[in-house]
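Q: A reviewer asked whether we had any structural model of the full assembly, not just the individual parts. We don't, so I'm hoping you can provide one. Inputs are below.
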Amino acid sequence: EIPKEQWAQVVETVGGPVVYKKIPVPTPGPDEVLINIKYSGVCHTDLHAKNGDWPLEVKMPLVGGHEGAGLVVSKGELVTDIQLGDKVGIKWLNGSCMNCSFCRQTEEPLCPSASLSGYTVDGSFQQYAIGKAAHVARIPAECDLESIAPILCAGLTVYKGLKESGARPGEEVAIVGAGGGLGTMAIQYAKAMGLRTIAIDGGEEKEKVTLELGASKYIDFTKTKNLVQDVQKASADGLGPKAVLLLAVSEKPFQQASEYVRSRGTIVCVGLPAGAFLKAPVFDTVVRMITIKGSYVGNRQDTVEAIEFFRRGLIKAPYKVVGLSELQSVYDLMVEHKIAGRYVVDVSR
Ligand code: 8ID
Ligand code: ZN
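A: Here is a predicted structure for the entire assembly that you could use as a starting point for your response.
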């Protein structure tokens, strides 16, 4: 029933294009499941991996993808809590040791021997992908696999980032890169969590999308003459947003956030532009008591919670579906920052 060969998108050289070709179907180990992937979201991280943007070695040749939703078709002998036919998801964190001090304290994304889907192990841009049973996302039977795919990275990551921001219901969060894949999800999660959002991105399509999703204001970074002033003015009392979620793939907004965040506010770094550095004036950071921190995907409990918001119908971020065979064209749009929301690939075509 499980074929020997399957279609996949393979990166053969760092910086090269993806190649749509047939490759062998892998066999799961004792603690793993084999998933027939139906849909996979395309994250900007997949593009960073393909281009070798980060100081972390990437597997080559590589099958990317880490927002894969599908059905379990085979499992190893140690897997007892997942049945064949169950809906599950491949996340960025494919596996971790489960025994280091980070894993023991539910900080498994920080595990020094974590394996990463579509980076250190093959991911979900193939019809059959492997995940460690302990880490695959459990998807409730009633959830649709197409629309849940982007929750598995984008949704989870921004939900965790919002929790890390410490912002409470009624407070304001600036979402930088609000019209992208993570950004559109962030507006939805923030709204569901009782937060107000100020959306920052470029162009009219992103303005339309972010305002429709419920952002209270939109600021176009390509048009504004004074971004810092505009963000502060957009906040209810003019003193700036309580938190900033930095999702952009560009360094400049990482330098600006400390100028407009509210005193006692928190800047959460999530986007990973290549070679970028943070910069903030020491004086302001001290006398305005600003917190600057990073946030990296989420643990298994965050995954359950992020999926539960979706299951309850609270998260409806826009996405477009194309065939897996068209993945390169999605990357071409992504490079130019022309994607409002997410692309999801249908792995069957
Ligand atoms: O765990 C993590 N920390 C994690 C998880 C998942 C993804 C981090 N990421 C990283 C990705 O690797 C990537 O670097 O988050 C970043 C955003 O991923 P994405 O949402 O999948 O990318 P996108 O859809 O291309 O959206 C990026 C948006 O940023 C806007 C673009 O217009 C686009 O809408 N943007 C840029 I580029 N410069 C901007 C600026 N100066 C900006 N928006 C506001 N101001
Ligand atoms: Zn991702």
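A: Points you may want to mention in the reply: DSSP finds eleven helices and 18 strands in the chain. The two ends are 19 Å apart (CA to CA).
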